[in-house]
């Protein structure tokens, strides 16, 4: 009898957990020429990628109803998509667990997209290649961040702004982002920035480093100009022989001959900065 009672209690807990678990898919057909996205997440696992469709925007969410509130609203008239993930029972140790909300956002390539994301903590992965982005702004307080452009953006990007306070940041193939100006800020942790890709005729990026190890990779087929501001003697900077110092700047060997140029303004903090060319 005691065994049956325990079995009943265990089954009840399982059924309650299943009842609280939610997984759903929302599909919005974007009719207008512009799409503005506001993504706000307390903590969880977030993936953003192309939908490979001209108009369909697909949002898949998985979460526990007793621990998380999800609010997704699309205003067709204004072309505004708001996604709010409010995790009521969240802490840093739980972010990768079964209770962590999971969001997959698939974006169409038809509309011109302005994307703003505010994420408190968790794991974020953005694959933004082959979209039509004219603005991208990301604020991530703590966790792992990956932003990649496997294919060129379909237009010149007006703003590319990434700010991560604590954690590991990987920015891949930023040459395919086709930005004119970029701002990259890393607080405490590891930062890797790769500028390979199609690239514009002229691009400029400001990189602000606080504490940690940073690797910046520049392609050898693009003329690169560097200006580095050191934080007293607390910064260890390694330049390859590919660069020659002239006054306050470092120039790549091919800077004058290259049709495309990249200007990097780097402010270092406490830690190591490595410049690589390949």
Number of discrete helical segments:
1
Strand content: over 45%
Q: Report the uncertain regions.
A: 3-18, 92-96
Tell me about the biggest sheet? Answer: 17 strands, mixed
How does the overall form come out from the CA principal axes?
A: globular
Mean pLDDT: 88
Order of helices and strands: HEEEEEEEEEEEEEEEEE
Q: Which structural class best describes the helix and strand composition?
A: mainly beta
Measured as a percent range, the helix fraction is: under 10%
Number of E strands: 17
Terminus-to-terminus distance: 71 Å
Q: Over the alpha carbons, how many angstroms does the gyration radius reach? A: 22 Å
Describe the structure.
There is one protein chain. The protein has a 17-stranded mixed β-sheet that branches. The chain contains 1 helix and 17 strands. With 278 residues, the chain is mainly beta. Helices cover 7% and strands 60% of the residues.
Structure at a glance:
7% of the residues lie in helices and 60% in strands. The protein is mostly beta strands.
